């Protein structure tokens, strides 16, 4: 038998008095606009904004003054964009590919791709088909820092070193350069003196490890953070890698050999040919996901979100978040203000991504892993908010589930084939988030199924406004303990408690089956308190308790003051049978006047597996039974014993899935457009709290119901 320790009662019913949500996952909203160039207009013209032209722009980097440098790959030149958006050619001759050092206006590049700027204003270029690293000084002189025009793989100083198609370059605060040597599948390091060594890799593969033991597959871009860690866009592995200061290489997002566009936890997320990467001061990574034509973020918490663009839907549209479109973005940089700039290579433009005021999705609570008996019902739920266009899509092991586009996913008559990881993508017009995968474990039907074993509900009781609790027994007779607590609440610091509670147990016909007032310290009742884990009561207290065995069917308990008194009181209903008894509690409910303080109901789940519950907060739905002062707008929350919000709702929305569950458990119907609230979840054994209040502090009669879903 599951016991409910007094400390959990205090947490769930005494100290909790306000509804709350704690955001867990949130996506920053970005407004996308075209900074320079014009979509699909190839050229090399300098100019301001849309008057400028590019040809396959790639690498991007900012200097300390806010100037942006662009590796204009197709034109074989380096461009500079001032903070005012004026584009000029810094070095190289447009359309002339070659290798020539000297004054910037005469120097030649072959295929500049990667670019970086140090604190002194020196610009470094990964000149891929020249297989070398070039330097442009603030005075306008171009030189070859390392490598030669011959491809190869050799460490050394200056021209003695060899590279094979280097495509990415980054510089740290000490002036050390790091190079994505794509053709050699290696990450190289260049000191200020031009000494080249191999930091990691050197063979094709996807292995993590230390230094040369690690392998890469066409690493195309690198970025450094303030702690000295290095990040790599490992393009043909469709992953992001990290190299620590100690040279340890790990995969931090994506899965080698599996491309895709899924957001979510780092291990569950998928990329498609990530082409560029940058990092902010908080350790968040920003990725130009070239194959998906999207901009992604890997948060410091490991969560991957899509910030802008839509996977596999290239275009050139400006807009906010997912409404914007890109075409094979291959460069990205972040400014000191936190704005991003993207080299939208397929569109021949530079795009600006500025944090916007729009409301991107927030996942308040992700779906939780559950265990279910074969043949039973499993429910996954997500609590999320967002802006216009809020939508959902559920996934099973990363594959979209057709038609499952609601916050609730219900799986009925589950079997071993349903055992998998389930996640949900939440999108709106400004962004998207994907939850971590929640596992469904299916166990044999011989396991003890989850069940409801206790309901404890607290509210204000006054003349004409008793606290009413209901329950339903199915499957066989059941021993029940019912308690009405008033004075006993003082031990937990509750002032103004009901001084003389009276319990009345009734059948649905209205016939009184039993009643109780002061419990009198009866030994047999004290023993049952201990058996079910109920907190003890003073033998001389005026708290009420009764023990009885009931046949299957619905019952109600009414708690009021013996002398018409008022005060805070708590009604408790316990399953007093040992585990495995034939009868079970299949429904628990509580009805009272809801005001400034919400109705708080604690309940316990027992058994070896999870119990799937349907929780309804009924206000407007009571009008069909002649309740005139029903609560007009209801909100409910489901919390675990730690106070963590597991599900929440303020208007059930006429969900066909939920309506089917109403019929399944015999609950009365609700109007599709009503402001009644409903949540559903599969819960492991433990203690939980359901809170019901009025939206905006509204008051009125309301009914809280908890059903066990078979």
Kindly summarize this structure in a few lines.
By secondary structure, this protein is mainly β. It is built from three helices and 57 strands.
What do you see in this structure?
The chain has 710 residues and is mainly β. 4% of the residues lie in helices and 45% in strands. The strands form 11 sheets. Strands 47-44-49-42-51-56-53-54 form an 8-stranded antiparallel β-sheet, covered by helices on one side. Strands 46-45-48-43-50-57-52-55 form an 8-stranded antiparallel β-sheet, with helices on one face. Strands 33, 36, 37, 39, 40 and 41 form a 6-stranded mixed β-sheet that branches.
In spatial order, strands of the major sheet run 47-44-49-42-51-56-53-54
Q: Oligomeric form of this entry?
A: single chain
Query: What is the end-to-end distance?
Result: 20 Å
Could you tell me the mean pLDDT?
A: 90
Query: What are the segments in which pLDDT stays under 50 over at least 5 consecutive residues?
Result: 1-24
Number of DSSP E strands? 57
Report helical residue fraction: under 10%
General form: elongated
Strand content: over 45%
| Radius of gyration of CA atoms, rounded to a whole number | 33 Å
Give me the secondary-structure category. mainly beta
């Amino acid at each position: 038998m599951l016991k409910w320790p007094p400390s959990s009662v205090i947490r769930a019913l005494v100290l909790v008095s306000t509804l709350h949500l704690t955001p867990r996952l949130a996506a920053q909203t970005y407004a996308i606009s075209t900074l320079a160039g014009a979509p699909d207009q190839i050229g090399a013209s300098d100019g301001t904004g849309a008057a400028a032209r590019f040809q396959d722009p790639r690498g991007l980097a900012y200097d300390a003054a806010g100037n942006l440098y662009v590796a204009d790959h197709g034109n074989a030149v380096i461009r500079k964009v001032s903070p005012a958006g004026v584009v000029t050619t810094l070095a190289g001759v447009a359309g002339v590919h070659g290798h020539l050092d000297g004054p910037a206006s005469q120097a030649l590049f072959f295929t500049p791709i990667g670019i970086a700027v140090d604190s002194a204003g020196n610009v470094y270029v990964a000149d891929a088909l020249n297989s070398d690293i070039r330097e442009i000084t603030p005075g306008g002189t171009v030189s070859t820092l390392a490598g030669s025009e011959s491809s190869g793989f050799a460490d050394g100083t200056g021209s003695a070193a060899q590279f094979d198609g280097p495509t990415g370059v980054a510089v740290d605060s000490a002036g050390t350069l790091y190079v994505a040597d794509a053709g050699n599948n290696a990450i190289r390091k260049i000191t200020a003196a031009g000494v080249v060594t191999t930091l990691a890799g050197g063979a094709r593969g996807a292995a993590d490890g230390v230094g040369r033991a690690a392998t890469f597959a066409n690493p195309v871009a690198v970025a450094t953070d303030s702690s000295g860690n290095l990040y790599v866009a490992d393009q043909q592995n469709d992953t992001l890698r990290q190299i620590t200061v100690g040279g340890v290489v790990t995969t931090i997002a994506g899965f080698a050999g599996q491309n895709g566009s899924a957001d979510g936890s780092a291990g569950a997320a998928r990329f498609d040919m990530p082409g560029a990467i940058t990092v902010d001061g908080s350790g968040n990574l920003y990725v130009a996901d070239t194959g998906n034509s999207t901009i992604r973020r890997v948060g410091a918490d490991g969560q991957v979100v899509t910030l802008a663009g839509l996977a596999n839907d290239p275009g050139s549209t400006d807009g906010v978040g997912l409404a914007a479109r890109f075409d094979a973005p291959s460069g990205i940089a972040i400014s000191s203000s936190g704005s991003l700039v993207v080299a939208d290579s397929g569109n021949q433009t530079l795009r600006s991504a500025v944090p916007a005021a729009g409301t991107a999705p927030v996942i308040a609570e992700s779906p939780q892993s559950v265990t279910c008996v074969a043949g039973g019902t499993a429910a996954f739920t997500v609590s999320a908010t967002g802006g216009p266009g809020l939508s959902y899509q559920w996934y099973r092991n990363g594959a979209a589930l057709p038609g499952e586009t609601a916050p609730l996913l219900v799986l009925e008559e589950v079997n071993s084939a349903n055992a998998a990881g389930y996640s949900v993508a939440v999108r709106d017009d400004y962004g998207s988030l994907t939850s971590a995968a929640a596992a469904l474990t299916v166990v044999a039907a011989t396991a003890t199924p989850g069940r409801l074993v206790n309901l404890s509900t607290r509210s204000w009781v006054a003349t004409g406004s008793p606290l009413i609790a209901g329950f339903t027994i199915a499957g066989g007779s059941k021993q029940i303990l019912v308690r009405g607590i008033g004075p006993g609440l003082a031990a937990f610091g509750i002032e103004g408690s009901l001084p003389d509670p009276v319990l009345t147990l009734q059948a649905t016909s209205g016939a009184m089956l039993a009643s109780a007032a002061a419990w009198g310290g009866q030994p047999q009742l004290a023993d049952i308190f201990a058996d079910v884990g109920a907190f003890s009561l003073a033998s001389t207290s005026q708290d009420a308790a009764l023990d009885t065995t009931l046949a299957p069917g619905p019952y109600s308990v009414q708690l009021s003051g013996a002398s018409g008194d008022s005060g805070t009181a708590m009604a408790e209903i316990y399953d007093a049978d040992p585990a495995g008894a034939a009868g079970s509690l299949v429904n628990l409910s509580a009805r009272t006047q809801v005001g400034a303080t919400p109705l708080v109901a604690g309940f316990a789940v027992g058994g070896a597996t999870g119990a799937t519950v349907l929780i309804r907060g009924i206000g407007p739905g009571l009008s069909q039974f002649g309740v005139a002062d029903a609560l007009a707008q209801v909100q409910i929350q489901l919390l675990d014993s730690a106070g963590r919000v597991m599900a929440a709702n303020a208007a059930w929305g006429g969900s066909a899935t939920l309506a089917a569950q109403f019929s399944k458990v015999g609950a009365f119907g609700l109007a599709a457009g009503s402001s009644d609230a409903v949540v559903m979840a599969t819960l492991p054994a433990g203690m939980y709290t359901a809170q019901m209040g009025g939206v905006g502090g509204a008051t009125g009669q309301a009914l809280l119901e908890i059903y066990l879903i078979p």
